[in-house]
Write a structure and sequence with these properties.
By secondary structure, this protein is α+β, with helices and mostly antiparallel strands. Among the domains are: 212 residues, FAD/NAD(P)-binding domain; 102 residues, Glutaredoxin, CATH 3.40.30. It is 27% helix and 28% strand. It is built from twelve helices and 26 strands. Strands 1, 2, 8, 9, 10, 11, 17 and 18 form an eight-stranded mixed sheet that branches.
């Protein structure tokens, strides 16, 4: 059994802050050393922003927890310097099967097109993700980046002020007080920070429970997502099977609402359920067992003055669809470049209001899709079940019915339509690269597009002229010139040009499109830069 989650990675050490006569002020403090908190610290440290991570634990999360990491998350991880490690260890997959009763009704391919550096998804235990992020943070420390992490430093009180946040921290050697210009709360679904500030979630809690079992076994199932409606081994309910590294398999079994959770988690009750699914002859052992309830909720606002919330501390969705950790990494991706500009004085503090509006849009999209998945998986009336089962029956033979099957619409990056940072669309180009969208990858010879768009404003030109460098109100924009003549797969044309003969894109540091036109027009793009940095 994997014991990685038993080894301290950031053991407690006394810090100079504990002996300071007055509270030490830090630029940014991150509460929580899960994937979202570590990613935020790495992102800021790579931009030379001084950041301190506080966590009441000193090791990675127990159990697999989040396991499905999307292409967009891998693209972000590449920018953070640890994407390849996730890819090397993870189980790649893009295909899945849907079953009804004892028969397969259809299969799907999430990435039928080519030209991407990363697969549609990998499966990887959260403890590996946290370990690789922690290794990256340590590497940045060794390079002299201004980042610290303190284990067994539990935040006991948070006070927000007009220009800073004050924290009272408990350690094995007693309490101390510390301050931050900005606080990022990444302390999970039960966020103590949120409770200390007297803030609650709004949304729905669904009346159903699901058993998660991570099982170690030798099996010849393919690396696909298999989902069952009303299977013979779990009548009237649903089930899910996914492969992870190290011969670990994730199994989800729907249990219903009125259950004794502690009783259902006991091995003597879990093992018979798994044997009914896998067969009596299959040998396995349990690595981790948990029970979860579907929840689709969020804070009313993710920004509370100088305190900003990200990941599960800000929003929760049901696990089907893999939106938890993936949306948390997108929060970080959206927030950190904006915070850097504000700290450097290159953007007004109001730029961070766009984090609130854009990521609330992302959360609402996830909640909406997750709620629809939950309603399809767990019908709330006899008539709803009849309609759902009819859709499943039809989908076995008729393609038109398959889009109506909802076994958990899988995570996709949010397109920030209507964002205050977008300029009006001035290109009759592909919808997937309209302003607000995350840039899709493209093969460029032996390289890929997205790494060339990471961490800075970029003027992407395709068969169009433009300055090599554009300076506007403290923002520097560098040009990346491409041509469809070098596009052997035609992916660049399909994804960025469409029928247009040329295009110029303004790309934000988080690889989202801020503006696009068919040609370079200086005044229009200067206006777009000011708008994208929150100055208009």
């Amino acid at each position: 059994m994997n014991k990685i989650f038993e080894v301290p990675l950031y053991a407690y050490e006394r810090s100079p802050d504990q002996d300071a006569a007055t509270p030490v002020r830090h630029k940014v403090i991150v509460i929580g050393a899960g994937p979202v908190g570590l990613a935020a610290a790495i992102d800021l440290a790579q931009q030379d922003v001084e950041v301190l991570v506080l966590d009441d634990n000193d090791k990675v999360s127990f159990g697999s927890r989040a396991i499905c990491f999307s292409q967009r998350t891998l693209d972000i991880a590449d920018r953070l310097g640890c994407g390849q490690r996730l890819l090397d260890k993870g189980v790649r997959w893009d295909r899945g099967k849907v079953f009804f009763d004892d028969r397969q009704v259809y299969d799907f391919n999430l990435q039928p097109d080519e030209g991407f550096a990363n697969p549609a998804f990998i499966n990887l235990q959260q403890y590996y993700v946290e370990t690789f992020l922690m290794d990256r943070l340590r590497a940045l420390q060794a390079e002299g980046a201004p980042v610290q992490i303190r284990g067994r430093n539990k935040v006991e009180a948070v006070g927000t002020h007009e220009d800073h946040v004050r924290l009272e921290v408990e350690t094995p050697e007693g309490p101390y007080t510390v301050e931050a210009d900005w606080l990022i709360a990444c302390d999970g679904a039960n966020s103590p920070t949120r409770r200390m500030l007297g803030i609650d979630f709004d949304g729905r809690v669904f009346e159903d429970n699901f058993l998660i079992a991570d099982v170690i076994m030798e099996a010849d199932f393919p690396s696909e997502r298999w989902f069952w409606f009303d299977p013979p081994f779990n009548r009237g309910q649903s089930a899910l099977l996914h492969k992870q590294p190290d011969n670990v398999w994730r199994i989800d079994l729907q249990l219903g609402w009125d259950i004794d959770k502690e009783r259902e988690k006991r091995p003597e009750n879990v093992i018979p359920r798994l044997k009914e699914m896998l067969g009596e002859e299959v040998e396995f052992q349990l690595e981790w067992v948990s029970i979860y309830t579907f929840q689709c909720r969020r804070m009313e606002s993710f920004r509370q003055g100088r305190a900003v919330f990200a990941g599960d501390s800000a929003h929760q969705v049901s696990p089907f669809g893999a939106r938890g950790a993936n949306s948390g990494l997108q929060d970080v991706d959206n927030l950190c470049w904006k915070l850097k500009l504000v700290l450097d004085g290159d953007a007004p503090e109001s730029l961070l209001d766009s984090y609130d509006s854009e990521r609330i849009q992302g959360a609402d999209e996830n909640i909406r899709k997750s709620s629809r998945s939950t309603d399809f998986i767990t019908p709330k009336s006899d008539m709803s079940r009849v309609l759902r089962d009819a859709v499943l029956d039809l989908s076995e033979h008729f393609e038109f019915a398959r889009p109506m099957v909802n076994s958990g619409r899988l995570s996709e990056p949010c397109t920030y339509d209507g964002s205050s940072l977008n300029s009006a669309d001035a290109l009759d180009g592909p919808a997937q690269t309209r302003p607000g969208s995350a840039c899709p990858d493209v093969t460029l010879g032996g390289d890929f597009l997205l790494p060339k768009l990471a961490g800075q404003f970029t003027l992407l030109t395709i068969d169009a002229d433009a300055p090599e460098i554009l300076q506007e109100d403290g923002i520097e924009v560098r040009r990346l010139a491409l041509s469809v003549k070098d596009d052997m797969t035609l992916a660049l044309k399909r994804r960025y040009l469409g029928d247009a003969p040329s295009a110029v894109y303004l790309i934000r540091p988080d690889q989202h499109v801020a503006a696009r036109r068919d040609t370079y027009e200086e005044n229009a793009f200067r206006h777009a830069i000011r708008r994208a940095s929150g100055k208009e």
